[in-house]
Design brief:
Two copies of one chain form a homodimer. By secondary structure, chain A is mainly alpha-helical. Helices cover 62% and strands 8% of the residues of chain A. Chain A has one domain. Chain A has four helices and two strands. Chain A has a two-stranded antiparallel sheet. The first copy, chain A, is elongated.
Chain lengths: 205, 205
């Protein structure tokens, strides 16, 4: 089993360029270039972890108390992220993305330290692609959902007398907006990671 | 050039299973299977076109007039999809997705009729992947944004006295909800198409 590099029943070595198959086209992605791609993946994952944790912590610290005047009534307002399903959804998704990224970083970090390639097999590559794709879609969903609630808070709802919440609650609204920006940035980074995953999958046969 | 199946400088044929390379793994995706995958792509694209046009037409026909009582005041309500930025966004994205799908269907249809493969080159494959990925993310964004507005209409906003809009406007709300469901279904179909694109990219070298 382990006693020879060439299995005994092959015995003939053809130069790669003369095999008449498309194996040639993937050679630029091997070796050094693949090593660079792996380091780039790890860096992007770490950056994405930072942005999603930032989004998460900005959102969970968003709260403010104030008063608002609707149709002549003074209504005390206490704004907190957990009052909106969309903001709760953003927190949940950001936490899940952070966990996914920490897991991936631990696996690929330990593999890099041992000197083995970060992605062990095609199936592993597909699994990472699927995870990144699903979480990119989830972050896009969470960011969009939260930003449409946040924009309603900013502008009011056009077909009612609902006023602009963000005048009395600008501290809360700013924090939420910044959190949403970081969520979209995490989504953008994950979309780049998806492309890198596909590059890896299309370079390995 | 065309006079021999084996290029003269190879001359040796090795049984595929004994070449000791991973070329074997991609063979099931060639020939007949690839033909099936192409037909499946066209069917999924056609289905996705139907769902996105349905979402679009349900949304642009959503409007209703009614009255609502807020804090003792009778307020006349006229609800229309174009009153909400999120619903306008959904209409725009659905229209863009439908155009993208019509273009892709025209290209791959004419190629299938001529008997050539639907995807001409690796670059073409990457282009289709990029288009499908971007539009899947855009549909997810539009669907989430619209559904968070729609759920606010259903439940009211928890930190204000805003009531449930969908009691007096149930016809409008039902139409919007169905449109959103079709948007998410289009997104799901495009996500499957993305996986098929990646399968194609990873089977061609």
């Amino acid at each position: 089993m382990i006693n020879g590099k060439n299995p005994p029943d092959v015995g003939i070595q053809l130069p790669e360029s003369k095999m008449g198959m498309d194996t040639v086209t993937d050679s630029p992605l091997d070796g050094n270039v693949n090593g660079k791609a792996e380091v780039m993946q790890v860096v992007l994952r770490a950056l994405c972890l930072v942005t999603s944790v930032t989004a998460l912590s900005l959102m969970v610290t968003a709260q403010q108390a104030s008063t608002i005047t609707v149709l002549g009534f003074n209504i005390p307002l206490h704004s907190k992220w957990s009052f909106s399903h969309s903001f709760e959804y953003l927190v949940g998704i950001s936490a899940a993305v952070a966990l996914h990224l920490i897991l991936q970083l631990l696996i690929s970090g330990s593999r890099l330290v041992r000197g083995s390639p970060t992605i062990s097999s095609r199936n592993h590559g597909w699994l990472i692609f699927a995870g990144d794709e699903v979480f990119a879609l989830a972050l896009m969903s969470a960011g969009s959902s939260a930003s449409s609630v946040s924009s309603l808070n900013h502008s009011g709802i056009r077909h009612t007398a609902l006023p602009n919440f963000c005048k009395p609650l600008h501290h809360f609204c700013d924090r939420v907006s910044t959190s949403i920006v970081f969520t979209f940035f995490s989504c953008f980074l994950l979309a780049i990671l998806v492309v890198l995953d596909v590059l890896w999958l299309s370079s390995k046969h």
